[in-house]
Amino acid sequence: MSANPAYEIPVTESGVISRTLVLAFGVFAYVLFLAIFLYLIGFIGDFIVPKAINSGAEGPVLQAVLIDLGLLGLFAVQHTIMARSGFKKWLIRFIPVAIERSLFVFVTNLILIATVWLWRPLPGVLWKLDGVAATGMWVLFFVGWGIVLLSTFLIDHFDLVGLKQTFFYATRRPYNGPEFKEHLLYKVIRHPLMLGFLVAFWATPIMTMSRFFFATVCTVYVLLALYIEERTLVELHGDDYRAYQQRVRMLLPFPK
Question: Fewer CB in 10 Å around end: N or C, the chain?
Fold first, then answer.
């Protein structure tokens, strides 16, 4: 479910250039997002990409921990603040409402680029699997990313990344936020997107300390973020979401 509040993008008589620029920014933020999303798969999985989670020169452990924690903390703070409805209402006093989500995605892109670039590896390996067990972990890793991608389309992929808003604005079409829906994965768990991330973060045949630190911090953030998002979703959808909470579990697809 998306926590974005429903709102209308006003259809104005703004000039062609400004409408074109709004759409261009939305497209740029989206294309950059796609590139970073693909890079992150290689970064976390430690394959193909030139700079991965376990690569780079090792320095003092405490320094590496503080740098990595700061990078992940920056991501968490940005998501926590910019995703709140109060901040959005303040922000659209200064920018067109149509690019609010694209700006969120763009800032996220910048933080993820910084995280990949500045990430410091940590020494040590917790486990190393071979054979069938290793293959199973790789399967889970890619299944996790597949769940993430599928979940974005079940929510409304192009709305989630802001491209839909900028396109509607550029073509002078009225826009309303995503509706509350239960279908496919969302009939089984309330947050399959986050479950996909957690599976992808933890599923690895070689659990280095770098990967373990990343997965642990991200898991803590996901659980805290879901607590906040659940409250926001109740405010947005009221009794419909409360009933949904009673029927469907948050992360684990077990019957209640």
Answer: C
How many other CB atoms are found less than 10 A from the CB of residue 169? 25
- Give the 3-state secondary structure percentages of the chain, helix then strand then coil, rounded to 5: 65, 5, 30
At 146, list the tokens.
């597949």
Written as six digits, the tokens of 49 are: 């990409």
Count CB-CB contacts under 10 A for residue 227.
10
Q: Tell me which H or E stretch contains 128.
A: strand 125-128
Q: What is the pTM of this model?
A: 0.88
CB atoms within 10 A of CB 15: 9
pLDDT digits (tens, 9 = 90+) for 134-185: 999 999 999 999 999 999 999 899 999 999 999 999 998 888 777 777 888 9
CB atoms within 10 A of CB 140: 15
Per-domain boundaries in the chain: 16-247
State both tokens at 178: 């995503």
For residue 256, name the pLDDT band (cuts at 50, 70, 90): low
- Cα(210)–Cα(123) distance, integer angstroms: 7
